[in-house]
Amino acid sequence: MPKKGGKIADVAKQTQAQCKKPKLDTAASPSVLSFESPESLFRSLISPIEEEEFFRDYWEQKPLLVQRNDVLVAAYYQSLFQLCQLQELCSQGLHYGRDVNVCRCVSGKKKVLNKEGRVNYMQLKKDFEQKKATIQFHQPQRFKEELWKIQEKLECYFGSLVGSNVYITPQGSQGLPPHYDDVEVFILQLEGEKHWRLYKPTVPLAREYNVEPEDRIGSPTHEFTLKPGDLLYFPRGTIHQADTPQGISHSTHVTISTYQNNSWGDFLLDAIPGLVFDTAKEDVALRTSIPRQLLMQVNTAECTKKLSSLLRRLADSLESCRELRSSDMKKDFITHRLPPCLGSDSDPFTPGGKLPKIDSRIRLQFRDHAIITVEPDQENADEIRRDMVYVYHSLKNRRETHMMGTENDTASEDGLAQTHGLRFPLSHLEALKQIWSSSTVAVKELNLTSDAEKENLALSLWTECLIEVL
Predict the structure, then answer these.
(1) pLDDT tens profile 332-391
(2) Which run of H or E residues covers position 215?
């Protein structure tokens, strides 16, 4: 649960050493990507394609193939993950199913060859070499810092969770049957070569994974071979299959994926409940009772006209709505995303530097890793609904559990994933927006009634390492 904000505690007695920001470890090969900002990272990822061209002509529309023939890019891609690193990774306690899948496409179907329990490297090597099985390594950013850096920046860029899987396939073999996914896909070819066939979607921008039989997908719309340093993008719903050609010892690629359940439909599902609740406060039509026994009827077609009318009233209300709430999607993103990548040897975030005072000037830190939401008070169980302001952040998220499901998350007492942040009265909303929207702001200029409230707000954010004092 977020901590309460707005009270000066004993934080003044805490250490005032600066929040440590150690330099990142150098990669095995010089980076060809720009990590100056999320935008520069994405532009360098799809180079030489321009960002504007990508979103105008390709995003959610059609595949993009970037074949580079660049030794520097190829060397950098290879440094992200290699077959020879599997033995060391297996020594860290990998498990079948959770960390690694072993599979092969046989007669158009996926055959899973997983064993039970921990992964034994020699058995994995045997399945790879003798059974021609594909090794699927789940979420390698948990172990590979360079992938952590890339995916953390992409999560900032897209505002959506970004996962990854590594696929290692021996020559003359195919790991998966033709299928489509529910994510936007970026494929980086790391080692060897992979022969790809893409097909026209049967379900454009699909919302779920599905295998498609060969007799339904027709002829490929695209067919090509990826080599080290090449990049491939295709939208969710694109049917695809890939194999390692004969004569190539093996192929290694990483699939970076995003935008799962991140559509307008998902946003509507998230925002409508709050909109209905707020509109019903002002519109009596939404507070009138439904017909007697409506919930007992088999056929409810007669009420569709009434619902249509109420939806139009909601649409009218939406036109004049100042604040559209999307708490669940926002909270899910910030709770499960990667923390900032400051180096594997960095200490946990601790407040440091000068304490904020009423005469201080402050600046927001880690803007891309914090959100503001307005939602019902989670600590008030009485019948009166009271809205509070919550500031959630991902600074204390665990890289080790990223994209691994709720069973691996740091859990709170109620079994839900732990959220990190602060809770404020609704009267603090405008002051928080000041801090978020300004490059710097004076504490005494915050839009709050008293100097004590202003100083308390700044101190609360400082304790979470969300602001620095200039």
Answers:
(1) 999 999 999 986 555 557 777 789 999 999 999 999 999 999 888 877 666 667 889 999
(2) helix 214-217
Coil, strand or helix at 401:
helix
Burial class (CB in 10 A: 0-12, 13-18, 19+), 190: buried
Whether residue 48 has a cis bond before it, omega within 30° of 0 = yes
Give the Cα-Cα-Cα angle 62, 63, 64 (nearest 5 degrees): 125
- Asked whether 424 and 388 are in contact (CB, 8 A), the reply is yes
- Asked if 387 and 281 touch (Cβ cutoff 8 Å), the reply is no
Q: How far is CA 117 from CA 95, 138, 175, 400, in A?
A: 6, 15, 21, 19
Across the chain, what does the average pLDDT equal? 88
Asked if 266 and 236 touch (Cβ cutoff 8 Å), the reply is no
Residue entry with tokens 């970037």: 66
CB 279 within 8 A of CB 313: yes
Nearest to 338 by CA among 369, 313, 359: 369
The candidate with the shortest Cα–Cα distance to 149, out of 439, 418, 344, is: 344
Distance between CA atoms of 33 and 312, rounded to whole angstroms?
48
Report how far residue 249's alpha carbon sits from residue 239's, in angstroms, rounded to the nearest whole number: 26
The angle, 0 to 180 degrees and rounded to 10, between the axes of the packed helices 327-336 and 264-282 is 130
- Is 438:366 a contact under the CB 8 Å cutoff? no
E strand or H helix at 129, and its extent? helix 121-130
| Of residues 416 and 20, more confidently modeled | 416
**E-strand stretches of 113-193:** 134-138, 162-170, 179-180, 184-191
